[in-house]
Amino acid sequence: MGIFRRLNTVLRSNLNSLLDRAEEPEKLIAQTVRDMEDQLRQARRELLATMGTAKRLAKKRGELEEDA
């Protein structure tokens, strides 16, 4: 089993080395920025939805307090 583990380690190492050489830092940074901008837009949408829900609940609470 030891030889297979070593062979696996060597193969993974070689594949990782090839991937490292193929990656361009500028493209990786640009993609990371795009991903972060997408996440920011999603967070803003979720915030607006939550604020809308909070307003509806506050209105409903006021109505229920008047009824009580």
Helix/strand structural class: mainly alpha
Our measurement of the CA-to-CA distance between the termini, rounded to an integer number of angstroms, reads 75 Å
What coarse outline follows from CA principal-axis ratios?
A: elongated
Low-confidence stretches: none
Biggest sheet layout: none
Rounded Rg: 26 Å
Strand segment count:
0
Outline of the structure:
The chain has 68 residues and is mostly helical. It is built from two helices and no strands. Helices cover 94% and strands 0% of the residues.
What features would you describe in this structure?
This protein has helices spanning 2-22, 25-67. By secondary structure, the chain is mainly α. The protein has a domain at 24-68. It is elongated.
